Amino acid sequence: MDIQGNRGPKRSIVSDLARLGVQNDPAITAEVERLLTLRTRDIRFRGEINRLYQARIWPQTAKIIRAWMIWVAFLGVVTLALNILLLPPAISTTMIMPNAIIPPIAIAVALIWQRPRPPWLQGGFLIAGMFFILLAVALAGINAGGEFYERSLNIMLFVAVTAIIIFGIPLSWTVTIAALALSLYLVLQLANPALDVGSAVAATLFFASGIFATVVARRNMTLLAQKTFLFGLRDRRRVAELADVNDQLERLARIDPLTGLANRRWMEETLSHLWGDGRKRHDRIAMLMCDIDEFKKLNDDFGHAEGDRCLVEVASIIQDNVRSNCDHVARYGGEEFLVLLPGMSEQEAVFVAERIRESVEAAALPNPTSRVSRFITVSIGVAVLGPAGEALSSEQLQRNADAALYQAKESGRNRVVTHPPVPPKIRSALTG
Fold first, then answer.
1. pTM for this structure?
2. Are residues 311 and 219 in the same domain?
3. Out of 102-106, 135-139, 248-252, which region has the weakest mean confidence (pLDDT)?
4. How many domains does the chain have?
5. CB distance 220 to 227 below 8 Å
């Protein structure tokens, strides 16, 4: 019998940890704790931790990259149209080809990042796509010449910087994109007829310092995100551990520690649930109140250790003689057990009670000072709420079973006695 049958589903936080695969992995737990002892700038993700981190951030990273590429494609089309409309044909014509290749390249990269693929594939496409987009932006101005030459190179660096800032990608990818942008800038500036070599190098170094600072800022953002991820893993694990402890404490609070059966508190909760849940009705419900005969004499004459052994044996016998999937057994008092039998008629309940009584007697557990028998016996009171019965509360049904138990003891013990049938009236079995 599962004494937590009325509990809700497992906490979502534990499910999250299970999906991440870290709930019970001591190696990952140890690595998280080790990384959190380091300074933020010294954190390095490797192996399984890195895989978990990438799996966690991939959806957001992919969404940002796709959105950026779509906007680049859109702006490429708009820029091409504006150049045709606003610039002299001799200039706009030279810009058509470079601007025309930007949208398909950006869309291709966005499609590659539509779903998870091997990192080498997505990283390669992203870096190659960025290179050709930057090259196309630069060539559009270079082909036009004049003032457009320098302007297009500055725009190219601006495009690269925006990508570096917002793309939450591995540092090696970020550095590669930055290096490609600066290399293009230097090569194209060296080819600029309006600049000498010294000016081209100086301009490149100036922009390199800005891009370097941007890469460092991006790296710091990544480190902070990684540290937040580590804190999240540790906190979720601790919450899951606390939830497990609370579950264990709650289970212990519902179990009799000696017999392993449910205790009185749990049985009362179960009764309240059965009577209060209008969706869960039974045509019949039976209750057995079982009491070990002459138990006090056994305790007094042979000590509590023998008494405890007797309680454990009787509890096991009762549990073995009921249905494990729907019946409920609880230790209700010192030597008293309550058995709830949903869906049983009086005849069926008496049969179960007699089987329990006979099984206890057949176990031949010694009780030499008993006036009933040389062995342990039980008396059982049976009360049944039948389909023709009046509305009864759970408390009334217990009183009926207890009254039947009292009659069993008064009439000689080691027997089963039923409570008189309930007078027929309009029945409402479990809502009384």
1. 0.60
2. no
3. 248-252
4. 2
5. no
